[in-house]
């Protein structure tokens, strides 16, 4: 397993700066975000990672496929727009040679992250999960033709309303099994799944379907914005070693991305963040 | 099904005031909290609910059985103290004639709700779940002898670290099945379980094991203190009707408790809260 920097961990760095940082710290892989790639320019981003000899362990992110659950024309348009955007994301992932496109599938139709409820909202969580399956049926062949693997990410159930109605690894594995393994896989992100009583059984079941292993800690207490509850490994409550071991035993040979959304980490010197990240990876994530 | 006021919803009311409020609003049942019963006096509380002709739909709460996972003498003492406290809670539930004693089983050993991590902490979530099973083995016969049913409450996974390592209804049902149905059951609380892809299958599986049905909404966005993310039914993202229907179809005939932890609800006039609660119960919870 090789350590990879998900660039959101060093959020103030551009793609160019993050690529330089990886090289400076001896990392061989980087996880990129679409908006940062767009800001740098897609062609320029491709050039930078190639020149640095970095693997692109993932592109974040596609998904948000559930808005089609809104009634009538509004729903149809939202679904079509989401598919278009996801096809562009697949194209970008292909250009970058990313190991996978991370899919955050979307929450309840009409629920906007961080915003109070307003306008039409659907509370039909089962229906929203069906919309995800429908979207996947459209996108998986498109991704397959371009050599891109879609990686379905189950998110912690506290994000079920606004970000991902995929709440367990089991659901994600269920969804990907109808497709070829090179088209659809799953993300195992410690923050999202550590609490799950079925975690180890589902990691084993996922096997070669594991397209990405992401690590960060679950902080306690959670901060006021729960999106920023992701901490440096060792700063929270997760026991990483058994999860890492299970992912390895399932056959995963890819990179391990550190993806931290955290106001203190973002405020810190990114070079210090990388140094800490490398040390904690060895001490906490790989410790057996 | 009959509506019950969980007294935490009208937190500023004493037991006497909450009993009066229930009578004034035509409610036949009340859910009590141990600290409020202690403040009123146990014998006086018994007298008040009897005189008012109210059912006690639950006593909140026993549990916090996981601290025994701390090493050595500290762990042994904490486990013994937790058992003692739970036996007292059983005795109080027996005196009150409560339909069940709600069990919030406890989080990771050494993790304190609302407090930063400090001192010894165990990150062994599987071990903590074993401690819960051990505690239950001690307490179930004790409760059975006194005619009290322990009701295991799975809490939303965002409380796994600090309040309950029971995170799914499936886990709770697994834990209660070895015991007689009159000794151990489960709580279905909409706030905690609405997101669970296995919810409906597990409600059906729970059947006569459902000892309590609690309702409140899941707010979006969550407030800064996630403990207070519980809202009045209709103010959040939960589709109550299918859950209520499933609980009924599973054979539940008990009371439906409204339990809301919410700064705005606590600040409001409790009589207005009860009026709104009755209206929303009819419109949102029972709507078919």
From TrEMBL, chains A, B:
Signal peptide as annotated in the record: none
Sequence ranges assigned to domain Xylose isomerase-like TIM barrel in this UniProt record: 22-269
Alphabetically ordered keywords of this record: Isomerase
Listed Pfam families: AP_endonuc_2 (PF01261)
Entry annotated with the keyword Cell inner membrane: no
Superkingdom of this protein's organism: Bacteria
Gene Ontology MF annotations: isomerase activity
Keyword 4Fe-4S in record: no
Protein name per Swiss-Prot or TrEMBL: Sugar phosphate isomerase/epimerase
UniProt organism field: Nonomuraea rhodomycinica
Taxonomic path: Bacteria, Bacillati, Actinomycetota, Actinomycetes, Streptosporangiales
